[in-house]
Specification:
Blueprint: E1 3-8, H1 14-29, E2 33-38, H2 41-44, E3 54-57, H3 75-84, H4 87-104, E4 108-112, H5 115-120, E5 127-132, H6 155-175, H7 186-189, E6 193-196, E7 235-239, H8 245-254, E8 259-263, H9 268-274, E9 279-282, H10 288-294, E10 297-300, H11 304-312, E11 317-319, H12 324-335, E12 339-341, H13 347-359, H14 361-373, H15 379-395
Parallel strand pairs: 1-2, 1-4, 2-3, 4-5, 5-6, 7-8, 7-10, 8-9, 10-11, 11-12
Helix pairs in contact: 1-15, 3-6, 8-13, 10-11
Length: 398
């Protein structure tokens, strides 16, 4: 049996953990030793049901770098901001990852948005599999694409800043007697397998890249939804406790239409305070696939997993992005004619856009076109295929 090490270094919440859970459980149930290094151990350990799975705290940059890029234009800027700004700091954290690798002695390492862990793995001979959506799996290219092409920025400046990050990476590779990278994208593409858990039209890098898209994996299950009373279309929301949350919930209540909103991280008392006859606010995860089948429209911050589930069910979305990754997904929704974008800081505008989604059938038609395109997709078969690929790669090292 193989030893499988899974690393999760960046990002927050269930969006990264939920795709990992069925992979971890499937591998453990087949007798493999599975070790998971999590960014958020205390909150998310319970997600993994198999008792044989070992959970470790992942090394990560806890604070902020001295001079971060306030506006991130490329993946190189993200790397700089998460600790690739200084070679000594990077050496310390790659050393921490290397210690974990020495303790575990894996046959394969799976990287979910874990650039420091990925770089550290080059100190040993091990199979490498990168998994994730388009955003955290940059494509093979000379220069990493600019995510904000509408803004006036000097391409040469972006190239210089990317080169600085590449130089820090190569400084460590030279110390480790490993071949230097010609481009920064090679950090992600010089691996044994890249598993893009998205679809071409939803890739954060547009137009779609060459290569195979795997599609999504089964997500976390939850409670069966109980829709409240109300006439009209069913609305589902997946929101964070943002400052304007009370106003957003009041706006949803005023529609009078049956609405369920899942808000991660709020108390049961808050759920009761916000809930009304037509609005049910919950803090426990629900069965998202059942929700996607039952609802008519969804509202979220533009997370990849939620967006995909709704589109595969042919349901349009309103995206209220909080960060660049979600903003790019919101752009995809609008480009595909399957949704709209608004600011979570402007509840009135958000409610106006939601009303437009509910009244204009073209958005539902746009979502149904995407669902029809992928109607034969089977997430469970995709999981089985991935587990087999992991086993093949792990066996190739031994």
């Amino acid at each position: 049996m193989a030893t499988v090490f899974i690393a999760w270094e960046l990002g927050g919440g269930l969006g990264h953990v939920s795709p990992l859970q069925p992979v971890v459980d499937a591998l453990a149930s087949r007798g493999h030793r599975v070790v998971v290094a999590l960014r958020q151990v205390s909150r998310l350990t319970a997600v993994f049901r198999e008792p044989s799975v070992d959970i470790l705290q992942a090394p990560y940059l806890a604070g902020k770098v001295p001079h971060p890029f306030k506006l991130e234009f490329t993946f190189a800027h993200i790397l700089h901001n998460v600790g690739f700004h200084d070679v000594d700091d990077l050496r310390a954290r790659t050393g921490a990852w290397a210690t974990l690798y020495d303790l575990v002695n894996p046959d394969i390492v799976i990287f979910d948005y874990s650039p420091t862990a990925l770089l550290a793995s080059w100190q040993r001979d091990v199979a490498r599999l990168v998994i994730g959506t388009g955003f955290c799996c940059p494509p093979r290219c000379r220069w990493l694409p600019n995510w904000r092409p509408k803004l006036d920025v000097d391409p040469d400046r972006l190239h210089r800043e990317e080169t600085h990050v590449l130089e820090r990476v190569n400084q460590l590779l030279v110390v480790w007697n490993r071949p230097a990278l010609d481009t920064l994208s090679e950090l992600y593409t010089r691996v044994d397998e890249t598993v893009l858990t998205t679809f071409p039209e939803l890739d954060h890098y547009q137009p779609p890249r060459d290569g195979e898209y795997w599609g999504t994996l089964p997500g976390l299950t939850g409670a069966t939804p109980e829709w409240p009373r109300g006439a009209g279309k069913r609305i589902f929301g997946y929101l964070r406790p943002v400052p304007k949350l009370p106003e957003l919930l009041k706006g949803l209540c005023r529609t009078g239409q049956p609405t369920i909103v899942f808000v991660a991280g709020i108390s049961k008392d808050e759920c009761l305070r916000y809930s009304t006859e037509s609005l049910s606010v919950v803090s426990a995860p629900l069965d998202i696939r059942q929700i996607a089948r039952d609802c008519d429209v969804a509202i979220s911050h533009g997370g990849h997993g939620m967006t995909v589930e709704m589109l595969l069910a042919g349901k349009p979305l309103l995206a209220l992005p909080q960060n660049l990754e979600q903003g790019l997904m919101a752009q995809n929704l609008q480009r595909l004619g399957a949704g709209l974008e608004a600011s979570h800081r402007q509840p009135e505008t958000a409610m106006a856009r939601l009303t437009e989604l509910l009244r204009d059938p073209s958005y539902a038609e746009g979502a149904r076109r995407i669902a029809l395109r992928h109607q034969s997709f089977d997430a469970q078969k995709n999981l089985e295929r991935l587990v087999s690929r992991i086993e093949d790669l792990a066996g190739s090292t031994g």
